[in-house]
Predict the 3D structure of the following.
Amino acid sequence: MSADTGGNLTLHGYWIDELLSGGVTIRLLTTAVDYDDTDADLTAKEVDAAGYSSQSVAATEWSTTTDITNGTTTLTNDSVIDFGTADSDWGIVVDFVIQNDANPDRFARIDEPNDPEITEGEDVQFSSNDIEYTLGN
């Protein structure tokens, strides 16, 4: 069995275009995403606190880079994604998703490796280039 598997450059581009088409929403989750989750599951797992709202990001606010040698395509946010200042404790964020606005059951899950506990008064944002989602080897 081959250890080098995955889509090619054309397929990676298609997947990213499908995800970003029509814009996306970034949602912070306090419960881990499961492989078979749907939009309804994400709603139940999302931060549920005063002052929190998910953030919409246009498709034009993302860029991709390719590494032909390693067979990867990486999606990166080009602008700041600002959730504002937490009006209350939001809990521990364990995952976040990049969710397609037109087809909300289509999303990319990103593990939050630091599992930050967001408390009242904290400014919450992703700076540009903070989010990287890589397809391929």
Remarks:
- The CA atoms of residues 66 and 73 lie 4 Å apart.
- The first strand starts at residue 24 and ends at 29.
- The two ends are 15 Å apart (CA to CA).
